[in-house]
Amino acid sequence: MIKKKLEVLTLHAMEKQQTEQEKQLRYDSAYLKMAESWSKLSHCKRKQVGAIIVKDEMIISDGYNGTPAGFDNCCEDDDGNTHWYVLHAEANAILKVSKSTNNSKGATLYLTLSPCKDCSKLILQSGIKRVVYMNSYKDTEGIDFLVDAGIETQQIDII
Predict the structure, then answer these.
(1) Annotated catalytic, 57?
(2) Catalytic entry in 20, 22, 90, 141
(3) What is the rounded distance in angstroms from the CA atom of residue 109 to the CA atom of residue 38?
């Protein structure tokens, strides 16, 4: 009898966990779609990347890759090379948080492209605890660094 009750409780807990995981996946997909929409604001021709930072179920920041404020919105030179001063989407989103009254400690970062090495350092230092992304950057060292640092990372394909 007790064993049967434990089996029922275990089954109930597993169903609840599965329901919570499905709900999280729905939200993750929705935030990734928002990041994808935000990426379309970028003036960069080679890559358009979007970022959304969510904390306590609220969007606290957003960003896309582009030039700093006050610069011409052209990201590439005549040869198609990206200007050195172009900011990545996640850097723009993190910097935007720093100008607000909010902070990103414990937040989730949603990206259309996994972070590079330099942005991964910013992500770690900003206190972000989870990174969800759609596509992988050519160099996986940024994601590898975050995993080694204990930050949860997850790649999700959305349709």
Answers:
(1) no
(2) 90
(3) 14
